[in-house]
Inositol monophosphatase family protein
Amino acid sequence: MTDSLPIALSAPLSPAQQTALVNLVRRAARTEILPRFRASTRIAAMAKTGPRDLVTEADHAAEAMIARGLQRLFPHALIVGEEAVAARSELRDEVGEAELAIIIDPVDGTWNFVHGLPLFGVIIAVTRFGRPVLGLLYDPIADDWLIADETAPARLVAANGTGRAATTAVGGALGDLHGYVHASLMDQPRQEALYPRLAALAQATALRCSCHEYRLLAQGAADFVLSDRLNPWDHAAGVLICQRAGGVARMLDGQDYGTARETGVLLCAGSEATWTALRDHFADLA
């Protein structure tokens, strides 16, 4: 018996492959992430691009474990982790050229993790030439996950294996919409264009965790996610899961999302009507 599962490049990952992927992520969370959460009064953290962009031992250890397991399961895939890209930036460009790539965000929401807030997750995206074909949004605290591939609807799966469909919200009038906007990550000119428009919405905030923002969007608890920080480990899985839950995910200029995009504004919304209303509302951000 071999450790590797065959890869059918003409179709999404098989059910057996998806199960192996989920089990690997769950083991990494139990082994490398949860034992370090609130393990001491202060978690050693280092700043990467700035004081709010943190990395910890949990990020590095979980990414290493997941990457090793993925390389055994999918020996022909390009395995790209957020922390690996931080060390070697050219890896990001290789994703769009790879027939099969698997992107890892080992601890999404590291700021929350460091400060003892149980709002973090693991994100896995499988892409083909930069196009997401499978997404996984895993919550280590609840031990449940949202998963979708390009042929099946998004579903929320509990630790015992029971699942239910995830469905985005229909939306409503602009003043009734609430969602997540990564305003603090935008440059000043875009912030100045953005902030006056937020008052027209019911609520616009951020969780410091794309994993949970996209989980809530896919389950109809939020109406949209808006971001111009296009790191594929933050968005590729969420884009697909949003779409497979009934939502719409496109760049604000109307183009499809792909991992090669490094500039522009990504808008994911619960319905076409919501996406269009928000596109018009935020048009000058594109």
